[in-house]
């Protein structure tokens, strides 16, 4: 027995009420005192580096918790450590102070941190702005206003300047620039593509991840619609309508246990993934059925409850670690400082509304019954969502980063992403174990020395009336891969199907992975081969699987059957959710050919739920019930084999 399992540094908290949430926030804020500078303007939580300077990183540690603190104060709450942030405003914005944050330059990380400060002034002016001396107010407004004439990235960053100006406006500051704010908002609106969705950038950017929702754009639109409703009513109503449409898609990214599907970058922000639901309450946006206030409350609180019990998300003193379910620097971006994870404090925004608000007054409701055991195609992000068989995951094609991001192929290019199993990132590129190649087709042209996975796609689209995804990708100039992704069917709800057509002028090795799964047995040691439904691994011909307390993950070659199944033990710390994982994989060697080669793959996934320590008995019957290829795709394969296509 692991006596340390799920032992967090926080006091027991059911996180069911507004007071419970406020208590959890206070326990998130308290440990920061021991890492705060003498003048309270900087919080240093570690010594790892980022692409920006260390002073900006310490400002990040100071500013990001303010999302939660300001919400608490705005809702009438109190926090005995509030003075630390008031004093920090004074010393951080004073050019004569040793703790001065530094004036902003073009595209400066300091701009990001202005958003929380502007929000704080806008919603909790009496507690965070009014106590400042006249000189401190001039310094802080001068510092905030210093971004109005600077160049910013053409992304969600523009929202940070909007919030700086909102704060300046609420403070009655002469540094408020109404023209600048309107121009930023007008430009941000050009990112909108319909159905509630916005790109994280101009036309040509193909990222619709959590920055399009809880991390930035939707959250910001909702907060703005509340704070500017008297000054900009038409735009605010448009933002509320976008949220109503978006919510009907976004709900599919959450599972009944409260977990969101990890996808894209900045996963170390953790429960910021659910802040959209709290922002609906802040903006008083009631949603269409089946998303009642009770449902919205449940989506928000279940997600926070999940994270409150993830021991690896916190250091022994209660500060947040860099990582996801445990400390993990493999998965980070070059902008993740030790203070970055506190972006999660956006999820405390529901504390800004009173206990009488319908969000808090409603009885918490479970995940909508109408949305269980369903699949849904989302045309804008090019995702097919599924929770058939009790597994919440998505199939993905057509997203990629438009700028360099570490491990972007893993964060955007995988074939599937799961709320239960997460995704993996490479720890290196010299072996398959290092690659962390779950939910991807990895190819090598040097005998397995190095591997390439799908990163950028072309011609990605939904086909078959939204029943499957189709996309092209080109790992080398003379290698073409076309992939079809087919979600589970009601007859075989634990399987999804992948079909790959490969044309190659060079010999290749291939390795296709299913979902990476917790790789330890009941004794905590590595899984060993086992038969039947016992915990362990299984390899036979063209199939492989692994069963552990996390459930069952498997993969089968349902095409030629030539590939070999292997239960691959991946390098430690590649998977976001578990540090030790097993990856069911199919492997093969392919010769160069002027004819199409077809790989047809069935992927099996059955996560456990609640406190279960294994999948429900009888799952092998579903394992033995194999899925099929849709007729349209099978017809393409047949024409290829007969030389007619």
UniProtKB/TrEMBL annotation:
InterPro entries named among the record's database cross-references: DUF2264_C, DUF2264_N, UCP014753
Annotated Pfam families: DUF2264, DUF2264_C
The organism's place on the tree of life at top rank: Eukaryota
Residues annotated as domain DUF2264: 17-367, 374-634
Coiled-coil intervals: none
Protein name (record): DUF2264 domain-containing protein
Organism per entry: Sphagnurus paluster
Taxonomic lineage: Eukaryota, Fungi, Dikarya, Basidiomycota, Agaricomycotina
């Amino acid at each position: 027995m692991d006596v340390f399992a799920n032992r967090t540094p926080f006091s027991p908290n059911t996180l069911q009420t507004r007071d419970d949430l406020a208590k959890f926030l206070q326990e998130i804020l308290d440990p920061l005192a021991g890492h705060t500078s003498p003048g309270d303007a900087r919080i240093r939580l570690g010594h790892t580096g980022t692409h920006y300077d260390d002073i900006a990183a310490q400002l990040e540690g100071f500013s990001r918790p303010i999302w939660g603190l300001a919400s608490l104060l705005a809702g009438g709450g109190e926090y005995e450590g509030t003075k630390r942030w008031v004093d920090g405003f004074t010393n951080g914005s004073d050019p004569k102070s040793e703790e001065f944050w530094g004036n902003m330059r073009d595209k400066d990380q300091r701009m990001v941190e202005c958003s929380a400060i502007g929000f704080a002034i806008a919603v909790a002016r009496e507690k965070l702005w009014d106590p400042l001396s006249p000189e401190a107010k001039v310094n802080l407004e001068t510092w905030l206003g210093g971004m109005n004439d600077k160049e910013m990235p053409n992304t969600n960053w523009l929202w940070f300047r909007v919030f700086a100006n909102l704060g300046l406006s609420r403070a009655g500051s002469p540094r408020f620039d109404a023209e600048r704010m309107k121009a930023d908002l007008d430009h941000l609106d050009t990112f909108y593509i319909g159905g509630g969705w916005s790109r994280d950038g101009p036309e040509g950017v193909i990222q619709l991840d959590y920055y399009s929702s809880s991390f930035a754009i939707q959250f910001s639109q909702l907060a703005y619609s509340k704070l500017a409703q008297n000054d900009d009513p038409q735009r605010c109503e448009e933002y509320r309508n976008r949220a109503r449409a978006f919510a009907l898609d976004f709900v599919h990214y959450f599972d009944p246990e409260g977990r969101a599907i990890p996808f894209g970058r900045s996963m170390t922000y953790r429960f910021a993934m659910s802040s959209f639901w709290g922002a609906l309450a802040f903006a008083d946006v009631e949603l269409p059925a089946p998303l009642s206030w009770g449902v919205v409350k449940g989506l928000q609180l279940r997600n926070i409850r999940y994270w409150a019990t993830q021991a690896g998300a916190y250091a022994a003193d209660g500060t947040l670690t860099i990582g996801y379910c445990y400390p993990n620097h493999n998965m980070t971006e070059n902008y993740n400082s030790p203070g970055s994870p506190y972006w999660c404090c956006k999820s405390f925004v529901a504390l800004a509304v009173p206990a009488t608000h319908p969000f808090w007054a409603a009885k918490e409701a479970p995940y909508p019954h109408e949305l269980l055991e369903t699949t849904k195609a989302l045309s804008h992000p090019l995702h097919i969502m599924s929770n058939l068989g009790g597994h919440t995951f998505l199939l993905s094609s057509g997203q990629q980063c438009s700028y360099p991001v570490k491990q972007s192929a893993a964060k955007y290019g995988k074939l599937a992403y799961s709320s239960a199993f997460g995704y993996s990132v490479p720890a290196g590129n010299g072996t398959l174990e290092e690659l962390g190649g779950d939910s991807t087709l990895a190819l090598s042209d040097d005998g397995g020395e190095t591997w390439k996975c799908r990163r950028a796609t072309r011609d990605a689209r939904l086909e078959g009336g939204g029943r499957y995804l189709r996309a092209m990708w080109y790992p080398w100039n003379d290698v073409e891969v076309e992939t079809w992704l087919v979600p589970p069917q009601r007859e075989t709800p634990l399987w999804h199907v992948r079909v790959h057509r490969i044309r190659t002028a060079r010999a290749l090795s291939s390795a296709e992975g299913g979902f990476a799964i917790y790789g330890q047995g009941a004794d905590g040691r590595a899984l060993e081969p086992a038969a039947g439904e016992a915990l362990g691994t299984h390899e036979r011909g063209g199939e492989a699987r692994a069963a552990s307390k996390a459930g069952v993950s498997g993969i089968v070659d349902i095409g030629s059957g030539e590939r070999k199944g292997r239960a691959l033990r991946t390098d430690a710390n590649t998977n976001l959710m578990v540090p030790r994982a097993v990856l069911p994989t199919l492997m093969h060697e392919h010769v160069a050919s002027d004819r199409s080669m077809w790989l047809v793959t069935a992927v099996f996934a059955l996560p456990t739920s609640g406190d279960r320590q294994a999948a429900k008995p009888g799952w092998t019957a579903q394992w033995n019930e194999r899925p099929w290829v849709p007729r349209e795709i099978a017809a393409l394969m047949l024409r290829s084999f007969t030389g007619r296509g």
